[in-house]
Amino acid sequence: MALGQYILDAEGRPVPEPDFLKWSMWMYSHNSEGKDSRIVKHTNIGKVLVSTVFLGLNSSPRRLLLWETMIFAGEHDGYQRRYESRAEALAGHKAAVRMVKAVQN
Predict the structure, then answer these.
(1) Measured in Å, how far apart are the chain's first and last C-alpha atoms?
(2) What is the maximum alpha-carbon separation in the chain?
(3) Cα-atom radius of gyration of the chain, to the nearest Å?
(4) Distant-in-sequence, close-in-space partners of 48: CB < 8 Å, separation ≥ 6
(5) What is the span of the domain harbouring residue 64?
(6) What is the model's pLDDT at position 29?
(7) DSSP letters along 24-77, please?
(8) Is the dihedral of CA 85, 91, 93, 95 positive or negative?
(9) Taking Cα atoms as reference points, which of 65, 53, 54 lies closest to residue 3?
(10) What is the mean pLDDT of residues 30-44?
């Protein structure tokens, strides 16, 4: 799997973007509704944030890992998992939310 930068097409599928300027413009722009297409889901649980985003960069030489879930604050602060698809990322987000809620109960 190639290392490099990716953007999402109109259907939300990752496509390589070899032009660094085009990639960076896409990464730092918002769509016409003002919604950031890189954010898959954010969930606040008290002072803890579970964040799942499209990274736009692949750093794995073997797999295309373009989505990431992280936990900020709380007992699981620093937790991080990367995924090959948006569907996997959403499932991983739900699992991270359950993990945070389990220690708060």
Answers:
(1) 41
(2) 48
(3) 15
(4) 71, 72, 73, 74, 76, 77, 100, 104
(5) 4-104
(6) 78
(7) HHHHT---TTS--TTEEEEEEETTEEEEEEE-SEE--SSS---EEEEEESSTTT
(8) negative
(9) 65
(10) 75
- Pairwise CA distance, residues 78 & 70, whole Å: 7
Output DSSP code: residue 81: E
* 29 vs 24, higher pLDDT: 24
Do residues 14 and 3 touch, judged by C-beta distance below 8 A? no
pLDDT in tens, 40-84: 999 999 999 999 999 999 988 889 999 999 999 999 999 999 999
Question: Cα separation of 73 and 44, whole Å?
Answer: 10
In the chain, how many domains are there?
1
Q: Is 8 exposed, middle or buried (0-12, 13-18, 19+ CB in 10 A)?
A: middle
The amino acid present at 35, given as its one-letter code, is: K
